Amino acid sequence: MKAYILTLVLASVLLSGCQTLSSNADTDSSPELYQQLGERRGIATIVEDLLYLIVEDERINEHFAGIDVSQFHTNLTDQLCSVSGGPCTYTGRGMRESHSDMNITDTEFNALAENLILAMEENGVPVSAQNRLIKRLVPMYPDIRNL
Asked: Does residue 34 register a pLDDT over 90?
C-alpha cells in the first residue's frame, strides 16, 4: 500500500513537471520532522536498517556492490538529517553526479524508496513523518534518474 502511495506521489510530481517542488518544498522549517525521525541517532539507525534491506533486495543490490559502506552510511545520514531540518550538512557529491552512469530505472528508484519506508516503519517513524520526508526527497528524482 505504501509503495502504491509513493508511486502516486511520484507520478503526480512528474506530471506537474516538478516545478512546484524544491528541496524546501515543505513550508514547515521547524525541526519537528528531524525529531520525529529520532534526530541524528535515529536517522543513522534508519540508514543502517536501509543498508541491510538493500543488501537483501535483488532489484537494487547490484548498484551498491563495492561501495564504501561506512562512507555511504555517513553521507546518507547527513543528507537525510539535513533534508529533515536537522543541523547536519551534506558534503557528498550531487545526486546527478553520483548516479550519472547507473541508469536507474523507475522500478529501482521505487525499490529504494520502498526500502526506506520499511526502514522507517521498523524504527517506529509515524506515517505522517515518513510522507513528509518522502515529499522532501521527491525533487531529487530527476537527478537520480538523470532525466
From this structure: yes
Contact (CB, 8 A) for 64 and 112: no
Tens digits of residue pLDDT in 65-86: 988 999 999 999 999 999 999 9
Residues 6+ apart with CB under 8 A from 103: 146
Taking alpha carbons only, the member of 96, 68, 90 closest to residue 77 is 90
Measured CA to CA, the distance from residue 54 to residue 59 in angstroms comes to: 9
Q: Cα separation of 13 and 10, whole Å?
A: 5
| Number of helices followed by number of strands (H, E) in the chain | 8, 0
Is pLDDT above 50 for 4?
no
Instruction: Share the mean pLDDT of the chain.
Output: 82
* Sign of the four-CA dihedral 116, 118, 119, 125: positive
Residue labelled with grid coordinates 534491506:
53
Between the alpha carbon of residue 136 and those of residues 33, 54, 82, the distances in Å are 11, 21, 11
Cα–Cα dist 117/5, whole Å? 11
Instruction: Measure the CA–CA gap between 140 and 128, rounded to whole angstroms.
Output: 20
